[in-house]
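so my prof wants the structure for this chain in the tokens format not the other one, which i didnt know existed until like an hour ago. anyway here's the sequence
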Amino acid sequence: MSDHQNEVSSRISDPQPPKNNNILKIGMALAILAIALLVYFVQREQQQNMLKEAALTAAFLQLDSLSNELDERILTISQLGGEIDTLVGIKQKLEEEKMYFLNKDQRQKITLGTLRGKVEGYRQLLLIKDEEINQLTQINGQLTTENIELKNETQVLNQSINDIKLEKNDLNQKVQLLSKLKIEDFVIAAVDVRGKERLAIFRKKHISQLKITFVLSENEVAPIEGKKLWIRVIAPDNNVYYDVNMGSGSFTFLNRELFYTAQKEILYDRSQQSVIVYYEKGTPFLIGPHNIEVYTDDYLIGSGSFIVKS
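here's what i got, hopefully its the right format
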């Protein structure tokens, strides 16, 4: 056999497997799979965001619809001679919430549960106002009939009016209760002549000034207005520290005169805010436990305590 025939026979008997082609195919398959997974997760996230935005928009449209219904209730109650000041305030708050939603940056902070809760709350309010409209309609109809034929039923109609007034008074009392300010935190410190502060318990000689710090809670129901705060520092003998030259005076609380140690005027804007009051006493503090009370309008909003040692 010739050398050429031997070489051909050797090539036929020892074929080489296409390893490089197999590796390339596997790599391409994995790349395609990775791309497919990436596309799937991106599309899934986009779909979830679209669903959330759609749900928020639907809830907002319901809120907008309730705003129109609230306008109708205000007009109807006004025509029937009912009280609408509270409803007008609620309507204003609803419009503020709508503007909050329309702000793109603020909308990102809104949860679907919160928005749906507001919608449900306004729906319940409309139901209550529908009952009031029915009562007012009945009363107006009864009054018209009385003026024509049944003047002897005046006492019954007046009783119905009184019932509504009692309900309104009850609602106003609840609003007043919710609008009261509250103190979250109360810190009392003694400041010496060098400006060093000591908390809660301190010696008499270390008190150059009394620093009273407290935090007023956030309250969306309370009116935005100027507030006078009266601070009473009560000594161990239950007497109030009082010095006209240091700003002390008196105010009326539950139809009786109370003396106050210091006074502070603030602008309350419904947000949480810190208040600091300094009190410099002309004479030394008494030894023992002291109490501090803070009043505004006709109620006590908070209190704290400190101890003076010899």
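also thought this was worth mentioning. DSSP finds six helices and eleven strands in the chain.
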